[in-house]
């Protein structure tokens, strides 16, 4: 009985740690043929793909997605970059998924992103270069920055029907 109760509490605690986060493989990642390798990085750590689709972002949608950045000097360049070709949108689920995905993605500027991260391994753009050229940093992926952003972004990009319920083999080793 006690064991049963303990297990119920444990599952509740684990559920709190289970998070969903939004990842976009941006047009540079799609056009460079890196979709499989980037997705593989997330699959390798055991994150679950809850939903995935290809979308061509419009300027209106870009303004919704990047609403916090509209006043930044680089926003027009960012909009140009994110609308230049289709993106692959993914919702990933796992323990502490928001923080974990940001760790795998690496720092915003590929120049300073650490080796082993997606941005550090597959790109090398710098702010110095993009500011001089008046372009957006091309860093292959977007990943929700925090819990609030993740909640809003998953809702903006995916309907409930597009998020799928199934079991991965990793879950056997988590719970
Ligand atoms: P993040 O993608 O690491 O969360 P944010 O600050 O949210 O970084 O910026 C969104 C995107 O805007 C970046 O991924 C990058 O593509 C672009 N960006 C950010 N800062 C600059 C900048 O100073 N110059 C050019 N592009 C930038
Ligand atoms: Mg951000």
Topology summary:
Blueprint lengths: L1 H16 E8 L1 H5 L3 H10 L3 E8 L3 H7 L9 H8 L4 E9 L1 H9 L12 H5 L4 H7 L7 E3 L3 H11 L12 H5 L1
The structure holds inosine-5'-diphosphate and magnesium ion.
Fold and architecture overview:
The chain is of the alpha+beta class. It has a single domain (14-169), classed as Nucleoside diphosphate kinase-like domain (Alpha-Beta Plaits), CATH 3.30.70. The protein contains 10 helices and 4 strands, in the order αβααβααβαααβαα. It has a 4-stranded antiparallel β-sheet. The longest helix is centred in the N-terminal third of the chain and has 16 residues, at 2-17. The radius of gyration is 18 Å and the shape is globular. Bound molecules: inosine-5'-diphosphate (IDP) and magnesium ion.
Short description, anyone?
The protein is an alpha+beta fold. It has ten helices and four strands; from the N terminus they run αβααβααβαααβαα.
Number of E strands = 4
* Main CATH class: Alpha Beta
- H-E order: HEHHEHHEHHHEHH
Rg estimate, integer Å: 18 Å
Ligand roster:
inosine-5'-diphosphate, magnesium ion
Strand content: 15-25%
Largest sheet: 4 strands, antiparallel
Q: How are the strands of the biggest sheet laid out side by side? A: 2-3-1-4
User: From the 3D coordinates, which CATH architecture would you assign?
Assistant: 2-Layer Sandwich
Termini distance? Answer: 19 Å
Indicate the overall shape: globular
Compute the number of structural domains: 1
The pLDDT mean sits at 94
Q: How much helix is in the residues?
A: 40-55%
- The DSSP helix count reads 10
| Structural class by helix and strand composition | alpha+beta
CATH topology: Alpha-Beta Plaits
Low-confidence stretches: none
